[in-house]
Write a structure and sequence with these properties.
Structural class: alpha+beta
Order of helices and strands: EHHEEEHEHEE
Bound molecules: coenzyme A
CATH topology: Aminopeptidase
Strand order of the largest sheet: 1-2-3-4-5-7-6
CATH architecture: 3-Layer(aba) Sandwich
Shape: globular
Number of domains: 1
Length: 153
């Protein structure tokens, strides 16, 4: 059975193993475990109780920032990341506050075609490019593309 729900503290060890499996340059355990808490809306996608994907999203004032998303390599290109982000967008839009979240921002490596296609397919727009923002595995730098999604009702 497939479910999407809040990523809890108890999920972090399993989710961090997925982080290490999914990214060429994964976050450290300290970074992964510290990107949780009150200011975050982090979701997990499970299939038969196993974490197959997660997303890490920080809320600051009326903006949300998607810091991380990953889907298990064996479950990619089946629409799961899109489903997870659609759920995140739905949750962000349903936050009941006097200052609703207006936009969802993200940064992505210029070479990350899969992620860029995912974000375009959801309706994110490219805002700008940050030159030489990311380190690469071979010790060089790579540009970041900054994208945003407007959360209007
Ligand atoms: C990026 C990532 C999350 C996409 O997950 P996914 O579950 O495979 O994506 P989906 O199946 O939901 O695909 C969504 C859209 O992107 C496209 N897409 C996804 N991966 C693609 C690929 N490798 N090549 C071409 N298109 C791709 C799909 O065709 C789909 O487009 P459509 O809606 O027009 O059909 C996954 O590849 C991943 O975990 N990568 C490693 C971690 C990473 O780079 N995270 C993002 C930066 S933090």
């Amino acid at each position: 059975m497939k479910t999407i729900s809040i990523l809890n503290h108890n999920d972090l060890t399993e989710a961090f193993a997925l982080e290490q499996l999914c990214h060429t340059l994964p976050w450290s355990k300290t970074t992964f475990f510290s990107n949780q808490g009150d200011r975050y809306l982090n979701l997990k996608l499970t299939i038969d109780n196993k974490i197959i994907g997660f997303c890490i999203c920080q809320l600051v004032a009326d903006e949300a920032n998607l810091f991380n998303i990953a889907i298990h390599p064996e479950f990619r290109q089946k629409g799961l990341a899109k489903e997870l982000l659609n759920k995140l967008i739905e949750e962000l839009m349903s936050i009941n506050s006097n200052k609703p979240i207006a936009s969802l921002w993200l940064e992505v490596r210029k070479s990350n075609d899969a992620a860029i296609r995912l974000y375009h397919s959801l309706g994110f727009n490219q805002i700008t490019i940050r030159k030489n923002y990311y380190p690469t595995v071979d010790g060089k730098q790579e540009d970041a593309i900054i994208m945003a999604y407007t959360l209007t009702l």
